[in-house]
Amino acid sequence: MGQSSRFEKLEAALDLIRAACIFVAAVALVVLIATFGWLVFGRYVLNATPTWVEQLALLLICYVAFLGAAAGIKEDTHLGVSLFRDMMPFVIQKVLLIATDFALAAFGIVMLIAGITLMQFGWDTLLPMLDIPESFRTLAITSCGALVTLFAGARGVLRILTFSDWQPVTQELEI
Amino acid sequence: MGLMILLLVFGLLVVVGMPVAFAMGIAAASAFWFEGFPMLITFQRATAGVSVFSLLAIPFFVFAGEIMLHGGIAARLVKLAAALVGHLKGGLAMVNIFSSMLFGGISGSAVADISALGSLLIPVMKERGYRPDFAVNVTVTSSIAGIVIPPSHNMIIFAVAAGGGISISKLFLAGVIPGILMCLSLAVAAYILSIKHKYPAEPFPGWREVGRSAADAIPGFITAVIIVGGTLSGVFTVTESGAFGALYALLLTKFYYRSLSWESFVLAVTGAVRTTAMVMILIAFASSFAYLLALYQVPTKLSGLLVSISDNPIVILLMINVILLLLGMIMDMAALILICTPIFLPIATGLGMDPTQFGIMMLVNLGLGLCTPPVGTCLFVGCAVGRIKIEEALKSIWPFYLAILAALILVTYVPAVSLWLPSLLG
Amino acid sequence: VELRGWNIHVEDYPVSIAMESFMEEVTERTGGEITGQIYHNGVLGSQPDAIEQIRLGVIDFGEFSLGPMGQSIPETNVVSLPFIFSSIPQMYELMDGEVGEAIGAGMIEKGIVPLGWYDAGARSFYNSVRPINTPADVEGLKVRVMSNDLFVGMVEAMDGNATPMAFAEVYQSIKTGVVDGAENNPPSYESTSHFEVAQYYSLTEHLIIPECLCMSLKTWETLTPEQQTILKEAGHASALLQRELWQAREAASMEIVQAGGTIVNTIEDKAPFQEAMAPVYDQFLADNPDLADLVNMIRNAE
Ligand code: NA
Ligand code: NA
């Protein structure tokens, strides 16, 4: 979507946050693969299976999923059905896009609050084998909620502020 | 009433273009709110939905596929396919299908298949006089075979959705013949069209060249052998096999082929993160959605309804297939596997169908859904790679639909197609 | 009120039958004021999720193993100590008495009210390599255990290779040799078909982990004292029924596995195993000094 240069700094900041999400998720993925190598090495070569790998992996995958999904909001890569929206006149399409942004932002807030509650609730439940609070898993939800609100909310606001400057386009998938 | 809210909110959001994963999440949160539950259950279910050990194989398979794409293994597989089947009528279409059989066999991701092979083959096909829509359609439909040829992360999602009682090894073996069958059936369709449109055959490069490209491609193909072989032999669990396949592909492209630069490694990792996140977030919110369906006892009621319409197994299986095809048009595979398996699997096993066969049937069916509008990820990606409009592709895609449907019917009504190989090696 | 019940088992399992009988009795004795719907087969989620949901009041009642509860309620972890109960009848007696009271108090603090203590039998080791008669027989075996420091510690104390692994992967993993064996009670050993791939079943009976029919404290607090009394009495009555059904089920399972070729051996002398567990107990008491009284209450019981 095109917007005037006065929002360039905001866009750059949002993009930095998006890149940070992808970076953290990518590190989590690489660690995940490396620890599984260590798991098999431990079981067959050392005959002592590292017992923390399974639980750590289950923790890391939450970050890959939820941070990656939040970045996907910014990158607009989530799967959706635009067919019906595309059949509408441009003005309605634009209103629908803005409404979708704000619905997502609102959902992000619910997610954020739920995440915080789950974190408080899970503080005295320990993840087996890792002995850290369950809250570290739900932190992924909390962060995802905050990021979804930020990305979708900012896009909605920008779309309103620049309402006459942009046209919805059928999305070209980047390969 | 709660069920109505769940379905209405979901339907409305999908129609206005909300991403499907979030549409499921918002619909689930609304229904929980309506029932007087804390809305945070939505997210507790979502987290629980992705924190499943077997699902860890997904990022590994996806990563292995990305490394193959960016590290040059895909290109070598295409060269091998070209040497082997390029001299047939419509040679490049055959090469396209055969490459999918080899490549899809490893990544199990149809989208990775299309981006990898499509970007290599579609331009060449256009240059050699193939119609762009034909090139795109061959690419898109043949990528579906990779979903049933092992390894495949969608098989793992199915095994998880079925409650963990289904052996992944058996699913892997069961997918081989249906996958090859799909490719053959697509090859027949492509062959007939090639005769009609007078598409060229490529010159046979000679046995020496076949040998050379095979020698070059085989180390790459071993990635699949590691993943499937590791699982079947029991040296590794599926998850570990996935991790080892990924590590092997990484080391191979870095140190043997020397075709993996730092940039392509970064592309592979971030590509894997994006695909994994997209699949996982669908699984996450589909878990919240499926929880409510179970709470409202939808599976029991729906199966009661189906069985009351007919007690003829052939008719019931037909109805299940039609419902899946319709759902496949509007939703993505991972979410549908999670939602529909608990509903339809008990009906199918009640008719005496083997759960493994049901899984393969479901994957072929929903695979077709990836090539159909309005939600057809593979079709979208294929059209983007081939730079044509979706409407353009749709005009000539029907012979390929028919080819996949033929394979689907065989998988549905002939158990041996899926079960013969596992029975032989089980 | 209509209560929502969670259960992981299939409908004809002893637990499921007892839960249904509990609900029937409650409905009858409250004159239809309290009714309930039990969702079997774990359709409402896995056990750790359901524990969280019962604490949040999304699920009104359910039947849980005390094993996974240990992650959030330390008192319940005491029964996950190997060889803590000397026999099943002793477990019944203690759980129906002051030990059950003490553990129950810890549960109520976290929002879960116990109504009756169910039986899940005793867990024993099985593997595909050799019968286990002494702790030394465990040495070097790759044994799948549930993800819990205590169970990992237990196998490691005998120099085995403890391997936490998803339950669903166990059958294939034993069959193909990823692990050598696992441990469970006879009905699970039989119904999962693990006996087909791990033919040695050694009756170590190392873990006697009771289960619990419980209610959400949030729901509990909305009920009248009379209703609460009825629920408690019906809960205990259903526990007695479940124990009876469980014993029958266990005997049936043992018959099936033995007919299927399983080689069952009993352990003549459990003392060497109990002695080998000393480091597990030491570590546990070092981590949970508050629970020393409870541990001793059980260990010193007749
Ligand atoms: Na595959
Ligand atoms: Na292809």
UniProtKB/TrEMBL annotation, chain A:
Residues 34-155 form the Tripartite ATP-independent periplasmic transporters DctQ component domain. It comes from the Bacteria. It is a multi-pass membrane protein. It is found in: Cell inner membrane. One of its GO terms (cellular component) is plasma membrane. Keywords: Cell inner membrane, Cell membrane, Membrane, Transmembrane, Transmembrane helix, Transport. The keyword Cell membrane applies. GO terms for biological process: C4-dicarboxylate transport. GO terms for molecular function: transmembrane transporter activity. Coiled coil: none annotated. It holds the Pfam family DctQ. The complex comprises the extracytoplasmic solute receptor protein and the two transmembrane proteins. This is TRAP transporter small permease protein. It comes from Flavimaricola marinus.
UniProtKB/TrEMBL annotation, chain B:
The chain crosses the membrane at residues 47-65, 101-122, 171-193, 241-257, 277-296, 302-327, 334-353, 359-385, 397-421. It is found in: Cell inner membrane. GO terms for molecular function: transmembrane transporter activity. Pfam families: DctM. Its main location: membrane. Belongs to the TRAP transporter large permease family. This is TRAP transporter large permease protein. The gene is siaT_19.
